[in-house]
Design brief:
Elements lengths: L12 E3 L11 E4 L5 E6 L8 E4 H14 L1
Antiparallel strand pairs: 1-2, 2-3, 3-4
Length: about 70
């Protein structure tokens, strides 16, 4: 990542399809950030956001798809 702050105020967040529907373990990601995938805990929307590089995110999701 470049170290430049990214404004996520207008980000459109979506929950993972694998998140717990009962309000438990919920991960959300936001689309539309060039070069990164913002990830947060949906139970704490004002909390920290982890920015994952697009290639790292694709590798992570690909690995999960192989496992499940």
């Amino acid at each position: 990542m470049s170290g430049v702050p990214i404004d996520l105020a207008g980000a459109s967040w979506r929950k993972s399809t694998y998140s717990d529907g009962g309000g438990g373990d919920c991960v959300e990601i936001a689309d539309g950030v060039p070069g990164a995938v913002p990830v947060r805990d949906s139970k704490d929307p004002a909390g920290p956001v982890v920015l994952v590089g697009e290639r790292a995110w694709a590798a992570f999701v690909g690995h999960l798809r192989q496992r499940w």
